[in-house]
Write a structure and sequence with these properties.
The chain is mainly β and about 270 residues long. It has a single domain, classed as Beta Barrel (Acetoacetate decarboxylase-like), CATH 2.40.400. The protein is built from five helices and 15 strands. The N terminus is likely disordered.
Length: about 270
């Protein structure tokens, strides 16, 4: 039998986050300050704020230890920014999700209604090209999602910017692993991006929800042959969307790990 104290620390969700592709863009800090949920402030690297487009595989999903049929394995692409919150002597560094794209309607319904998230549902596809299931230098990963609006003939980053008519409804995020995976260099932008273990959401009543997200430190690799084709206006109506048309400050690939998401609390 689980005690009340044990229940309070039991994760609400367990899963694997794998094959993460992260495009990281510098943005003005005053915009992040305006968007940051109450009780948080922009988290900075070398005095600058960043946002990230993140594509990854959501695998082996369990809600309170229970697998939900047809909702245990799917891709997701999200836009997030970085905040921090001081709690006594502890500095909690977290993320705020601006837009999450997934192919499962039930996921979007629950997350949006109960947790005030910003999920959008649309057809998606994902692929990784590796010899043994483990990404190594030269391997490729790709995430795509379909829009009702066609992309312009050229809008994006990389070799895939010129799209055929048959593919112009598909947004695309892809890259190739450029070097062996390793722990990020201490003090680097890459370490800053992946070392956030909290999530924050602005509630409808104006308060802020806080979630703890636990996982082992991620091994990362630089990315090459990056493609970023996206109809920005239809996917990202946030003020942050305007900054997704410039080349990213960095692009990395993370191998990922099992994760635990703990119950939210209001701050």
């Amino acid at each position: 039998m689980i005690s009340l104290s044990q229940r309070a620390t039991r994760p609400i969700l367990t899963a694997d986050w794998r094959n993460l592709l992260l495009l990281n863009f510098a943005v003005p800090t005053d915009i992040i300050a305006q968007l940051a949920p109450p009780g948080t402030e922009p988290d900075l690297f070398d005095g600058r704020s960043y946002i990230s487009i993140v594509g990854f595989q959501f695998q082996r999903i369990r809600l309170f230890g229970i697998a939900v049929p047809f909702h245990t394995n799917f891709p997701e692409v999200n836009l997030r920014f970085y905040v921090r919150r001081q709690v006594g002597s502890e500095l909690r560094r977290g993320v705020v999700f601006v837009r999450e794209i997934a192919p499962r309607h039930a996921v979007a319904l629950v997350a949006n209604r109960l947790y005030n998230e910003s999920y959008k549902t649309c057809p998606m596809r994902a692929a990784s090209h590796s010899a043994n299931g483990q990404l190594t230098p030269g391997d490729k990963i790709n995430y795509g999602w379909r829009s009702k609006i066609r992309l312009p003939v050229r809008e994006g980053l990389g070799e895939g910017s010129a799209l055929s008519n048959s593919s112009r409804n598909w947004n695309n995020l892809s890259a190739q692993v450029a070097a062996p995976f390793a722990i990020p260099t201490p003090g680097s932008l890459e370490e800053f991006i992946v070392e956030h273990y909290w999530a924050y959401t602005r509630c409808r009543n104006g308060c802020t929800s806080e979630f703890r997200v636990a996982h082992d430190p991620w091994h990362i690799a630089p990315a090459t042959n990056v493609t970023w084709n996206c109809h920005i206006v239809s996917n990202y109506d946030s003020p942050l969307g305007a900054f997704l048309t410039s080349p990213p400050a960095s692009v990395i690939i993370a191998a990922g790990s099992p994760v635990e998401v703990f119950p939210r609390r209001t701050i």
